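Practice problem: predict the structure.
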Amino acid sequence: MDPIKVIRSRTVVMSSTNIDTDQIIQARFLTTTTREGLGAALFADLRNAPDGSPRPEFVLNRPESRGCRILVAGRNIGCGSSREHAPWALLDYGFQAVISTEIADIFRSNSLKNGLLPIVVDEATHQWLLDNPGAPVEIDLPASVLRLPDGRETAFPVEPFARYCLMNGVDELGYLLGQTSAIAAYESQHT
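Answer:
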């Protein structure tokens, strides 16, 4: 995982509510246990016509969406079944953060464990983001603050251990492996 400290990016807005994990990545793409290449399957049924050609009206297919690392979604993103492939697909596509007023618990947990920052904001901030697609924003993870272009700041909650892991680019196992010498020292004193 890449460490996250500050993310500066324009936003991509998908204002739909109840974006479930099967929309994010369909079950037919869950045959892999690696993350690489899943970005191509992100929102496949929404991005592509039945013949596989890109739908030009879909937000991710528009030129102004290229290079954006922050997805602003309507209320309740990540609902549905638990699948780590959903944050994997978002990350492989290039997103580093997802913002909404409501993020499903399992999706939020899977995102944090895999290096995708899920941010819950208040209704007013969310509405401003929905009304201003492509806005350049800044996410300051150490301060847990989202900064809008007009200077307004909105605090967002992140559990301290998850923040530590994201800022240091480690998952839970990576954190534990980083404690190997301390674990060995403890065990040598308590055998």
